[in-house]
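In this supplementary section we document a worked example of the pipeline. Step one takes a protein sequence of length 570 as its only input; no multiple sequence alignment statistics are reported here. Step two produces a three-dimensional model, which step three serialises into structure tokens for compact storage. The input and output of this example are shown verbatim.
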Amino acid sequence: MKILGIGSPFGHDASAALVIDGIVVAAAEEERFSRLKHAVGQGPLQSINFCLKTAGIKPSDVDIVAYPWSYQALLDRRAEYFWRTIFTKPSRAYKKFFKCGKELSGQQKFINETLSSTGFDLEKTKIQWVEHHLAHAASAFYLSGVDEAGVLSIDGGGEITATLLGHAKDGKINKIKEIVAPDSLGNFYSTMTDYLGFEREDGEYKVMGMAPYGDTNRINFDHIIYWNNASYHCNDDYVWVTRNNRAHVDKVYSKKMVKEFGPERTGDGLSEPYIDIAAATQKKLEDMTLKLVDTYLSDILKRCGNLVFAGGCALNVTLNRKLIEHPLVKFLWVQPASHDAGTSLGAAIYAAKDAGEDIKPMKHVYLGPAFTNSEIENTLKESGFLYTKENDITEAVAELIKDSNIVGWFQGRMEWGPRALGNRSILGNPVIAGTADRINAIIKFRENWRPFCPSILKEYAPEIIDSDHPAEFMTLSFKVSDKWRNKIPEVVHVDGTLRPQVVEKEINPLYYRLIHRFYEKTGIPVLINTSLNRRGEPMVCSPKDAVVMFKESGLEYLAIGDYLARKPLA
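The serialised model returned by step three reads:
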């Protein structure tokens, strides 16, 4: 069967994914094509066209279009939402209860316009509506390769549910517990992201990166988010507040928060009390999540030891480290595209499983567009840059990085999800002091305290991270072993952790060869790896995108296909 998943039910992170006979053959986020971060307000038109083109099929060949939103789920949970919000957010309560039919018509209009614009015959197209959190859960469990697992899905909210805990076994995902918004860990974290001066639904990872600089003991959030009977509870006076309670109309933190903790953070620096607020925010996310796991998933984990995780909060690698360290968790699998973009894939996978398909585990994320050397050279000819065709691009780049140069690396199919995993990357030497600062300052144009991730050869990873846990997608963080902490300082965060991509020869042979060449020259089986983009931009997709980024940043070299481009000397 050919099943197309499409996603943008909440107006951001539009994407498309194609599953054929249980295998993921293509997946991409719309932002990579439109060049608008998170594709806000856009449908996945170019993503759909890419998926179909990759498979060589027409819209009429698609058996099912799956969509990660369910009207029935909205109806099933609306009463709970109503009674939760009627006294604190009455306008929202009435709107959600009495006008949910309007929400359905809006989602239906979006689907119809999207499919019509991409050549689908609406009369002949079968559409399957999939609950938002079941799409997240499916993207984690069915692609993990395990037969049984505890299931965790946490984000801002989908339909009405903000958190789902379940038990997956025998090919089925059974719900154990749902927590309804506005009690939302995702919305709590996004509210604090907003207050800390970052863009919500984008800058949450910056809060995570800032947290280790602060002291959790200096800030008390027990009145803002707390455990209440069998669930966590968010204080509506602080978290994603109504418009009349906001400190600013376009922000979701409250006047009360500003009065209690001071004015919202501005600028790019680290300062008190904001680093302490970031630390307290991160600690609350961890504490509430671990309490959920202990309360609802302990029996499952005692039996199988497997936990699968998706939803926007699953991109919080510090939280994931705490989950790995949980005594009952033997194996944690996190969907590489855990945010809402990943629900297109999850919906397609759910529909495929529902149709009786045998789902193949996800071994890699190289599911986006690729470009030929001919296409690349045509772009370089028009760029005005100097370039040479290399007999061995890995040898040339390894030598450059050894000599402290920073190199853009553009190869093969683009990655699915927010992490650069060796095909659309900026690479540097993790040994040479100041390399991370240079990347932040003259290439990425971002905050100087932001950490970078390492790509590590698989054979050496257990020695470096003191763990043999699989870590191929940069979704997990680990403490760095004492032996290696001072050897690779440019990829070690202030708290002594790193977020690795463990590189296997069989999965990405070209990238593996590059790192191995660097290892042969230096004795270091590690490279700095960050996404090939600048602050506020999506990761590059095409050779043209790469050339533009190269031109408008401090990058001196770009390895693109078999070609090495350099800027002319001034």
